[in-house]
Specification:
2,3-Dihydroxybiphenyl 1,2-Dioxygenase, domain 1; 8-stranded mixed sheet; globular
Length: 293
């Protein structure tokens, strides 16, 4: 079906501060704001809505920070039909619509809300190449096979080649894509801890961020990672993590002023089966991706 990731929501006490951060370092710009203090920004492809924390807007699981994501759809009736066939226990709810929210909401098998919009979440025009949000990652206590099935069967996403390889290896992480954005479904188990063994948290707060369940972090593809890193203020430079060979898609992890995790990559993400997008601005195969370090 005609569906793609088009939205993500962050709940914050300081939406304007975050909007300024993403404008300065990632070239994002404002779509609009609300009297309540919500701010929506874009990278030209996604609507990133930074919602002012207040009663009724607490974030997923009642926590501020990265909350949930959204899928742009062509026809809500097609989604209804797919849900009836593949996920009969998942109901469609109404959302408030407008610039900062979807028109509908569903919940995946892991309980994470997914906003839906038939209006592309207010984003139109030709998407730019770089920098672009190309990755969203979610942590859960168990392998997310049912959630991957939900995305592929209800919305037509693909499980990517790297994910199928990891299945063969008996590994628990799953990766899918809509052709533009990679979704990582990560299980919080010993394998997960081993994969980030080189990312040692400097304090309990950072350890909590690394192990946060639900929407954990997201990632940009940028043209020059080193140039970006050199511009970061000192207080954010302290949170920089350089990934090792155990991580296939990102080279660095930084945090925004609220502590939300952001992966930085030039080597790219697999956004469809055997389709990687990287800093060259073109799509490459898995063989091309792993031919270089």
């Amino acid at each position: 079906m005609d569906a793609h990731i088009g939205y993500m929501a962050i709940v914050s006490e300081q939406p304007e501060v975050l909007a300024d951060f993403y404008a300065k370092y990632f070239g994002m710009w404002k779509l609009g704001s609300s009297p309540e203090g919500d701010v929506s920004i874009t990278d030209s492809y996604l609507n990133v809505s930074i919602l002012k924390r207040r009663p009724g807007v607490e974030g997923a699981s009642g926590r501020p920070g990265l909350s949930h994501y959204g899928i742009s759809i062509g026809d809500i009736h097609e989604v209804e039909g797919n849900l009836e066939e593949f996920a009969p226990h998942s109901n469609i709810e109404q959302e408030s619509g407008g610039l900062h929210h979807g028109e509908y909401r569903v919940y995946g098998p892991n309980g994470l809300p997914i906003s839906l919009s038939t209006r592309s979440f207010g984003v139109s025009g030709t998407p730019r190449v770089l920098p672009r949000i190309r990755h969203m990652a979610f942590n859960f206590p168990k392998v997310q096979d049912d959630q991957m099935d939900f995305l592929t069967k209800v919305f037509g996403f693909q499980e990517v080649k790297l994910s199928l390889k990891r299945r063969e290896q008996g590994r628990s992480s799953r990766f899918g894509g809509d052709g533009s954005v990679n979704i990582a479904l990560l299980a919080l188990n010993p394998e997960f801890s081993q994969a980030r063994q080189d990312w040692v948290a400097k304090d309990d707060a950072e350890e909590e961020r690394l192990n946060k369940t639900g929407f954990n972090h997201f990632g940009f593809v940028v043209e020059d990672k080193d140039a970006l890193m050199s511009t970061l203020p000192a207080e954010l430079q302290e949170l920089v993590k350089q990934s090792m060979t155990t991580v296939d898609m990102a080279e660095y992890r930084i945090h925004d002023p609220d502590g939300n995790g952001i992966d930085i990559s030039t080597r790219g993400y697999e956004v469809g089966y055997d389709q990687w997008v990287n800093s060259t601005g073109r799509t490459i195969t898995s063989a091309e991706r792993f031919a270089t370090v």
